[in-house]
Amino acid sequence: MAVSLTDNDDDDDFSETHDINVTPFIDVILVLLIIFMVAAPLSTVDLPIDLPTSSAMPQKKPDKPTYVSIKPDLTLAIGENAVKRTELISSLDAMADMAKDKYVFLRADRAVPYGELMGVMEILRSGGYSRIKLVALEAPSAAAAPSPDAAKP
User: Fold this and answer.
1) What is the rounded average pLDDT for all residues in the chain?
2) Residue 67 belongs to what H/E stretch?
3) Given its phi and psi angles, is residue 73 left (phi above 0), alpha (psi -120 to 50 degrees) or beta?
4) Inter-residue contact 136 to 109 (CB < 8 Å)
5) How far is residue 132's CA from residue 6's CA, in Å, rounded to a whole number?
6) Nearest Cα to Cα of residue 69 among 35, 33, 112, 32
7) How far apart are the C-alpha atoms of 124 and 98, rounded to whole Å?
8) pTM greater than 0.70
């Protein structure tokens, strides 16, 4: 509350001025601005993500799918046969039932880095195999008991 100290002969009491004091409001706004400026960069921290299962509706598998697998030690395999990265495309081309327009089912272990998965996808794409499907485990149903891994943070 503010008062005016002017000479008024009409009244001996001090008259009140009805102005809002905005200084505390500005102080609060500046403190909030500083808090948000400090907190904003911290909210964009990357978190490790583990995606072992998928809740998508399973699609019908073809009669003879071609699986390309990336093992935890980053070696490749077509079906059950180990293959070098440099020979991946030539091995796929040599298969009798494989064509460039057929789907290649790509499986990768959880321990495989994302960059390695993308590298194999790039090898397949450069070899003309652009129809790639990623393979994941089906998510357990809601009625099923949770797995022991589900309790881990």
Assistant:
1) 75
2) strand 66-70
3) alpha
4) no
5) 85
6) 112
7) 13
8) no
